[in-house]
Design goal:
Blueprint lengths: L9 E6 L4 H12 L4 E5 L2 H15 L3 E5 L5 H11 L4 E7 L14 H29 L2 E6 L12 H20 L5 E6 L8 H5 L3 H5 L8 H14 L3 E2 L3 H12 L2 H12 L2
């Protein structure tokens, strides 16, 4: 078991904990007795969530407002954790997408997305890994997406960031074999969260049938199960599992036009 039994002397860090899947992962962890460290930019939401979890589950919920696009802030975040409970788990959940053709998108916003979706995930993983290996236990969960399994016109950079997260996590999980530490990739498909609004388009979400959409609660449950089991990947929803398989094995000449139509590009 990579994510060991909950203890008062340990905590699990969740980035992007102020909404959506991140909030639900925090609730799942707290319901299983884990202390949580909640990280996001919106301190007010984190404080509300921390109060809820502490009251309902009698666990310690720590709030750390942080903009993970800032490398100095990331370093300070990890350094500050050294004074607290040992890190039993890390959920690299923070991230966002940008819709539209690359040529029409804001270059600065594209760069910031890559900093958050890729560089921050890699940076936090590298920083917390030595301590986990030294203790012989720990679980890292990196949130990828079913967008990782094929190129996605209209979300070109976003899909590429998630392809990195998936490949990185799968390879790292293999490297960690025998250490007591695992790295899992969570690959959700469409989820009812704030993602579409931030991305600037609900077209893809609106065009998909309801049976492909999995609740944030169910995604979070499967995410924490994956951490406990040390699973390499978790893809919530049968339709999304089929889509991921087809994305892996289908010729790009077929995948790209279909993906473009679904995304509205």
């Amino acid at each position: 078991m990579a994510l060991k039994t909950a203890s008062a002397s340990t905590t699990v860090l969740i980035t992007g904990a102020s909404s959506g899947i991140g909030t639900e992962m925090a609730r799942q962890l707290a319901s299983r007795g884990h202390g949580v460290t909640l990280v996001a930019r919106r301190a007010d939401r984190l404080e509300e969530l921390a109060a809820e979890l502490a009251k309902q589950h009698k666990i310690t919920a720590t709030v750390i407002p942080c903009d993970l696009r800032d490398p100095i802030a990331r370093a300070e975040l990890v350094e500050g954790l050294r004074a607290g409970p040992a890190l039993a788990g890390l959920c690299n959940n923070a991230g966002y997408g940008i819709s539209g053709k690359l040529i029409g998108n804001d270059p600065d916003r594209e760069r910031q997305m890559i900093e958050l979706n890729v560089v921050a995930v890699h940076d936090l993983t590298v920083r917390v890994l030595p301590g986990m290996i030294e203790r012989g236990t720990g679980a890292i969960l990196n949130v990828a997406s079913t967008a990782a399994f094929q190129p996605l016109p209209g979300f070109a950079s976003y899909a590429a960031t998630k392809a990195f997260v998936l490949s990185f996590s799968e390879a790292l999980n293999a490297e960690l074999s025998g250490t007591g530490v695992s790295c899992s990739a969570l690959c959700p498909g469409p989820v009812k969260t704030e993602f579409a609004g931030v991305a600037g388009s609900t077209m893809m979400e609106d065009s998909l049938p309801d049976f492909t959409v999995v609740s944030a609660e169910e995604v979070a449950r499967q995410a924490i199960d994956a951490m406990e089991n040390g699973s390499r990947t978790a893809i919530p929803g049968m339709a999304n599992q089929i889509q991921a398989l087809l994305g892996r094995i289908s010729p790009r000449s077929l995948v790209l036009p279909l993906a473009g139509r679904i995304s509205g590009h």
